[in-house]
């Protein structure tokens, strides 16, 4: 175990209210591409830029193209939690970790066993009719490509079903934001992992942390590096596989 991993382990051992704030880099080792790396979602060719397609105005005006992209790129079937997801769930079970604040929409933290997860940007696993509110899972969205207009329509009222994902131009859920900020405020240690910290307002949440130790784990530099007590420029899996 190298010196930085030992330092991280010592910080974890001394803490009892850890919050993990994570981004796309948490799930890349589960085969889910991140948005901004060289081989990520934003580097691929589509008729429209991905940021345009996953905006609320595009969803409203061009739902067929939205869902074509959404089904192919954002619903990742058969993705499984990786070592980072499982280690975080273990830390929660040991009553070391009090919450996870995630920018991811894949539900893998819950699949690994984590209970207290604040999903800032929603989840592809939840979908709701915009008229009556009936719930549908991700399989319903996938199967709707075989419908006459290739759109997911509610089986009760025929309303359009929308993913419970925060699109560009939409605000974050107030209750989720409040819970995430409160958890960060109460934390004695904040671990930031797998995020470039460029997506706001989520990236601004870390300013609420006033605890003892801030650890930053990311393959590349971030704006939080200078604020952190510990900076590790490695993939999350290679770090968390060494944590007890």
TrEMBL record:
Its EC number is 2.3.1.286. SUPFAM superfamilies: DHS-like NAD/FAD-binding domain (SSF52467). Nicotinamide binds at residues 35, 105-106. Signal peptide: none annotated. Pfam families: SIR2. It is found in: Cytoplasm. Zn(2+) binds at residues 129, 132, 154, 157. GO terms for cellular component: cytoplasm. InterPro entries: DHS-like_NAD/FAD-binding_dom, NAD-dep_sirtuin_deacylases, Sirtuin, Sirtuin_cat_small_dom_sf, Sirtuin_class_U, Ssirtuin_cat_dom. Its main location: cytoplasm. NAD-dependent protein deacetylase which modulates the activities of several enzymes which are inactive in their acetylated form. Belongs to the sirtuin family. Class U subfamily. HAMAP family: Sirtuin_ClassU (MF_01968). This is NAD-dependent protein deacetylase. It comes from Treponema berlinense.
């Amino acid at each position: 175990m190298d010196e930085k991993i030992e330092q991280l382990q010592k910080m974890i051992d001394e803490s009892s209210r850890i919050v993990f704030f994570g981004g796309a880099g948490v799930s890349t080792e589960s085969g889910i591409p991140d948005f901004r790396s060289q081989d990520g979602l934003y580097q691929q060719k589509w008729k429209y830029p991905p940021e345009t397609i996953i905006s609320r105005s595009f969803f409203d005006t061009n739902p067929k193209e939205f869902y074509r992209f959404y089904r192919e790129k954002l619903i990742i079937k058969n993705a499984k939690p990786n070592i980072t997801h499982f280690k975080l769930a273990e830390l929660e079970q040991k009553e070391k970790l009090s919450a996870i604040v995630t920018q991811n929409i894949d539900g893998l933290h819950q699949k690994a066993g984590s209970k207290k997860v604040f999903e800032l940007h929603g989840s592809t696993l939840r979908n709701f009719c915009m008229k009556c509110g009936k719930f549908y899972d991700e399989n319903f969205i996938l199967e709707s490509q075989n419908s006459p207009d290739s759109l997911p329509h509610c089986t009760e009222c025929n309303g359009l079903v929308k993913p419970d994902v925060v699109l560009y131009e939409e605000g974050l859920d107030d209750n989720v934001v409040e819970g995430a900020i409160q958890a960060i405020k109460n934390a004695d240690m904040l671990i930031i992992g797998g995020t470039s910290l460029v997506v706001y307002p989520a990236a601004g949440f870390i300013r609420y942390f006033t605890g003892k130790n801030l650890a930053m784990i990311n393959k590349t530099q971030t704006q939080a590096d200078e604020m952190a007590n510990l900076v590790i420029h490695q993939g999350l899996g290679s770090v968390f596989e060494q944590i007890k």
